[in-house]
Design goal:
By secondary structure, this protein is α+β, with helices and mostly antiparallel strands. It has two domains: about 10-165, Trna Endonuclease, Chain: A, domain 1 (3-Layer(aba) Sandwich); about 175-245, no CATH class. It has nine helices and six strands. The chain has helices at about 10-20, 60-75, 90-100, 145-160, 175-180, 190-195, 200-210, 215-225, 230-245; strands at about 45-50, 55-60, 75-85, 115-125, 130-135, 165. A four-stranded mixed β-sheet has the order 3-4-5-6, with helices on both faces. A two-stranded antiparallel ribbon has the order 1-2. Strand 4 (about 115-125) and strand 5 (about 130-135) form a beta hairpin. Helix 2 crosses helix 5, helix 3 packs across helix 4 and helix 7 (about 200-210) crosses helix 8 (about 215-225). The longest helix is centred in the middle third of the chain and has 16 residues, at about 145-160.
């Protein structure tokens, strides 16, 4: 569908969105129910290419984006589906009636909202696969009305025997998330591939140049010069090594900073 979705949709328009497959499917064929272009920009939306799924993902908040990065880094991730539609459409309306709460509506309309879950994860398990539904909120936003809407989501997934998680800034690995954000550009940057340098080799050189008293930028600059690379390519190579788990950079202990020393994982 070209352009943005209608801001004040009628039921017929919503039915067309559903028929078009938004918020449904899996893998590269999946289309989120809500794209970044569909909502007014508040400066917090992100689009990122996923190595796990091979497609671009759309996130409406920084917190959702951070949860995506943590999921992307997980070695057991098989699929990530953002803004997954809770269909059939009338089921969430039925749940709301049973709970005695108002079902959300599109602004300035009487049209019931198609409720979406922020991320639906498919995880590889020893005995097969597991689906995990994740709703993402900041604790400051957990007001009574928001909790009512989250209850609709939770009951929808409970009916299907699917684990539902409420992810806030208090229960996600924030240091890891921020450090993956530090190297996020490597997911979209082709300079590492074009350089012809093995990212793992670059990381080993970085580690050899490492000193507890040298800041990140200092070590990165020296390593890039040693291999006749510009610093941007060096950063892309190092980030690629981190994402591929081919680096000893510790992303869980302290937040990375261009002007601070780096912690390495012991051999």
């Amino acid at each position: 569908m070209a352009g943005t979705k209608a801001r004040r949709p009628s039921p017929k328009i919503v039915e067309r969105w559903i028929e078009a497959g938004f918020g449904q499917g899996a893998g590269m064929a999946y289309k989120p129910f809500v794209f970044v272009r569909d909502v007014p920009s508040i400066g917090a939306s992100n689009t990122v290419k996923s190595w796990a799924t091979g497609r671009n993902h759309h996130y409406l908040s920084r917190q959702e984006f951070k949860v995506h990065l943590v999921a992307e880094y997980c070695s057991s991730i098989l699929d990530i589906r953002e803004q997954f539609a809770l269909l059939p459409w009338d089921e969430t309306q039925s749940i709301a009636r049973q709970l005695g709460i108002k079902h959300p509506r599109y602004p300035a309309t009487t049209t019931p909202t198609v409720i979406t879950t922020d991320l639906l994860l498919t995880m590889k398990r020893p005995d097969g696969m597991e689906l995990i539904a994740v709703s993402v909120k900041l604790t400051k936003d957990l007001e009574p009305r928001v909790l009512e809407k989250l209850l609709i989501e939770r009951l929808y997934w409970n009916r299907r025997g699917i684990r539902w998680i409420l992810a806030t800034e208090k229960n996600i690995p924030n240091v890891r998330a921020e450090n993956l954000l530090f190297f996020e550009m490597a997911l979209n940057d082709d300079r590492a591939t074009k350089s012809g340098v093995d990212p793992a080799h670059f990381s080993r050189q970085f580690e050899a140049n490492h000193s507890p008293n040298r800041c990140f930028n200092n070590v990165l600059s020296k390593t890039s010069r040693d291999l006749s690379l510009d610093i941007q390519t060096g950063h892309a190579l190092l980030g690629t090594a981190v994402w591929k788990r081919a680096s000893r950079i510790d992303i869980d202990t302290a937040r990375l900073d261009h002007r601070s020393p780096v912690v390495l994982i012991s051999r």
